[in-house]
Write a structure and sequence with these properties.
The chain has 302 residues and is mainly beta. It has two helices and 23 strands. The longest helix is centred in the first third of the chain and has 16 residues, at 2-17. It starts with a helix and ends with a strand.
Length: 302
């Protein structure tokens, strides 16, 4: 009797020891092949910004949708030899069937969006054909053109944000009170002279800015004759220079107010000034890039 009982127990344990049912159904052991898809997107620095990049639209506001799947951005790396930064966009885990819909040779719709204004706004839309879900490089120019390595792109349709619309440049810098005819030169040829150690200048931008509040202004000042150089920041050198809103929304006024060495101007010296601005914004909140132009002027006291 004991032998029969032991034999009964052994038979009862068979389905558990072999890891399947006696009827050949293994539904609880089915394995789904999950993996993430990714694409590398190259953009010029004037298009995308980060805390260390002054650019058009913060990369943290970006998102891509490819074939209906959402891809989120990583931190930009670069620049490369062409001045581009690379952002890797990665999807959530996708099944092999879902990944296959991206690589079956049929174009899918790719949409680049940004919530720079507080809600998603389309930047670019284009048909995209992928050969794989890895090793894909999409290059986007400031003008909105798209090329693809590891696939191909169709006709690009620009959305409500032009990729280069947020790039802010300095049109000119001129001596305040004398009009644009007294613009500073970008070379030492024909350099403009000032007759005071505390001159005032106007920076004329090519687009309107929202406000000067919260903006950190900077300048690297170099004496051409001696090579001596110093850096100014509006947050720490307010006793040396000031920057305030100008007479129009595309103008700011800069005044040299300090005459104490070593951050001071001297008579009969030519100076090169490289201007920067951080956290300069348009009314819609988009970050703007200031092209770092260099300007020259000479002090010639009467």
């Amino acid at each position: 009797m004991k032998k029969l009982f032991v034999l009964f127990l052994l038979v009862a344990l068979v389905p558990f020891t072999v890891g399947c049912s006696l009827w050949g159904q293994d539904e609880d052991l089915d394995v789904v092949d999950y993996a993430k898809a990714s694409v590398s997107v190259k953009v010029p620095a004037s298009v995308v910004s980060a805390s260390s990049l002054r650019g058009a639209v913060s990369y943290t506001t970006l998102s891509m949708t490819i074939g209906g799947f959402v891809f989120t951005p990583g931190t930009p790396t670069g620049p490369d030899a062409d001045g581009n930064y690379t952002i890797v966009f990665t999807s959530a885990n996708l099944t092999s069937a879902q990944r296959a819909t991206l690589t079956d040779g049929t174009p899918v719709t790719a949409v680049l969006t940004s919530n720079v204004s507080g809600s998603p706004v389309t930047m670019l839309t284009f048909p995209l054909t992928l050969a794989s879900t890895t090793n894909v490089v999409i290059t986007i120019t400031a003008a909105g053109a798209v090329t693809v390595t590891g696939g191909s792109a169709g006709t690009v349709v620009e959305g409500d944000i032009d990729l280069d619309a947020y790039e802010l440049n300095i049109s000119k810098v001129y001596r305040k009170g004398d009009g644009t005819a007294t613009a500073l030169t970008t070379t030492t040829t024909g350099v403009l002279e000032v007759t005071t150690l505390t001159p005032e200048f106007v920076i004329d931008f090519d687009k309107a800015i929202a406000t000067t509040t919260g903006v950190t202004w900077g300048a690297v000042v170099t004496c051409v004759e001696t090579g001596a150089s110093y850096t100014l920041s509006s947050t720490t050198d307010s006793a040396i220079f000031t920057v305030v809103a100008g007479a129009a929304t595309d103008l700011v006024d800069v005044k040299v107010v300090g005459t104490t060495a070593p951050k001071n101007l001297e008579d009969n010296k030519t100076y090169k000034v490289k201007l920067t601005a951080t956290n300069l914004k348009m009314a819609n909140g988009g970050m703007l890039t200031v092209t770092n132009n260099e300007y020259f002027f000479k002090v010639n006291l009467p």
